[in-house]
Design goal:
CATH superfamily: Spore Coat Polysaccharide Biosynthesis Protein SpsA, Chain A
CATH architecture: Alpha-Beta Complex
Shape: globular
Radius of gyration: 19 Å
Order of helices and strands: EEEHEHEHEHEHEEEEHEHHHEH
Strand content: 15-25%
Largest sheet: 9 strands, mixed
CATH topology: Spore Coat Polysaccharide Biosynthesis Protein SpsA, Chain A
Number of domains: 1
């Protein structure tokens, strides 16, 4: 059995949704739902990393282990690097970053990235993806797309529709990109590669020493362009393992409108 620690970065300040980790889903704060999923995944330890006393108070109220961190972090990964240093987590240990706005992430997905790292020793980092079957999702910049190799290596992440399916995409009269139809399964099976569309699921597994390496790199050009921290890893020449998630993940909660829809469905 893979031994791993889950760290849940949680911050109160947010441009689109301030106080999101404490927003109620049913009768529980969102953060508590995420914490419960991490425990169900079988993590040996679950730590909430925050810089806000309001989050600390609520999290400790439902029994969570909280690690207070700096207010200056620009990404969840650098916040986790501070947790690793504070808690003296050993270099070889596997740490899984579970986003605080994924209240219903399947626990098997959390364990999946940890198991993959435990099995594939040459990768410093692992993540997951899931097929996209709606054209509007391919064009939606809030849904991050990923292109991967046949062997399970992430090649690139983007908010743009990648890969560009020539013959299926064109510009409309307003000059905006549109998709007539997604490539069918019969078309993608004509070649060894599979130019299907995959959305990236924002869960990461790392070896603890690589999180420290990541935080010391400094941000990269591609990371700044796309506002995607995982591109720092690729631009500096490291590999990220990726495979299709075993459990179909729901979309995370990005806005108050997302939360309202979620509560209506509960």
């Amino acid at each position: 059995m893979t031994d791993f620690t889950v760290v849940i970065p949680a911050r109160f300040a947010s441009t689109r949704f301030e106080g999101k980790p404490l927003a109620l889903i049913g009768d529980k704060p969102m953060l508590q739902h995420v914490h419960e999923r991490a425990i169900e995944a079988g993590a040996s330890a679950v730590i909430i990393a925050t810089d806000d006393d309001r989050i600390k108070q609520v999290a400790e109220g439902f029994g969570a282990d909280v690690c207070m961190t700096s207010t200056h972090h620009q990404s969840g990964t650098t916040r986790i690097a501070e947790v690793i240093a504070i808690r003296k987590i050993k270099d070889h240990e596997i740490v899984v970053n579970v986003q605080g706005d994924e209240p219903f992430i399947p626990p098997e997905n959390i364990r999946q990235v940890a198991d993959n790292l435990n099995r594939l020793h040459h990768y410093p980092m692992a993540t997951l993806c899931y097929p996209i079957d709606e054209t509007e999702d391919v064009l939606n910049p809030n849904i991050v797309k990923v292109v991967k190799s046949l062997g399970g290596k992430a090649l690139y992440f983007s908010r743009a529709p990648i890969p560009f399916a020539r013959g299926h995409m064109n510009l409309n009269a307003q000059g905006c990109l549109q998709i007539d139809t997604l490539p069918s399964s019969s078309e993608t099976q004509k070649t060894q590669s599979t130019p299907s569309y995959f959305r990236h699921i924002g869960i990461y597994g790392y070896r603890a020493n690589f999180v420290t390496t990541f935080s010391e790199m400094g941000d990269s050009t591609l990371e700044r362009y796309e506002s995607l921290e995982q591109l720092r890893v690729l631009e500096y020449g490291f590999d990220i393992h990726i495979e299709v998630a075993t459990g179909a993940p729901p979309h995370g909660v990005d806005t108050p409108e997302d939360l309202a829809r979620l509560n209506q469905s509960c």
